[in-house]
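Notebook p. 47: complex prediction with citrulline.
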Amino acid sequence: MVKTPCRNMAKGITTAGLGKPNYELAMKQHSNYVQALKDIGLEVIVLKADDDHPDSTFIEDTCLMTPKCAIITNPGSPLRRNEIHDIDEAVKHLGLNVEYIKDPGTLDAGDIMMVGDHYFVGLSERTNIEGARQLNAILENYGMSSSTIDLENVLHLKTGISYLENNNLLATGEFLTKQELQTFNILKVDADEAYAANSVWINDHVLVPAGFPRTKKMIQGAGYKIIELDVSEFRKLDGGLSCLSLRF
Ligand code: CIR
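Predicted complex, structure tokens below:
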């Protein structure tokens, strides 16, 4: 599931310092992203743009999709809180079990990394302990589990790590030395290519942001097929490849 970028996207939250995104180019990049998902065999649901919420194309943060239920989050930024209504409606249409994170718990699903039926939850400026506690309770009800990781320098957990299945973990910066992650086979992303640590495994392919040749080569060397996508306009809003979709 993806959500079309809105005309107001340039008003989105950012710390990137890379300038304002260009809406037309963002639309083109988004449409290439959707095409890539289709090319690797996914059916794509495209939600309409929401001009009231500049960051709403970063749909990943609003819901955690698990094989057993959809968990609507309570985004940590008040500016993004009302993004959940469209998503709630969309997942209800799919006939999934729907659960909710509620105040005082906050949680952005960009802080959650799924590894089989275990979920790593980053405690960040957006995701608090109460949000993580509620999430854990929901997951346990469905026979799944979670554990937390403290974040230091990044916006979201998946800003700095991506699980590529087969025990392979793409990681950069503070995540290279986290005790909780040392059982993974870590594929180290160099600091100057840190943005590419947010890549997405789907059906034995890995979507990688364009412009990070060493990371691309490393992932290829680990046996994956690569699809390179230019997401420069989303990067300007601190968003990466994973933020642009809910995969289930
Ligand atoms: C925000 O600050 O919330 C957006 N501008 C970027 C969200 C990126 N989402 C993600 O990393 N999962």
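Notes: The mean pLDDT is 97. The pocket of citrulline is lined by residues 12-14, 55, 58, 60-61, 77, 80, 110, 155-156, 159, 237-240, 243 (CB under 6 Å).
Next step: compare against the earlier run before touching the bench.
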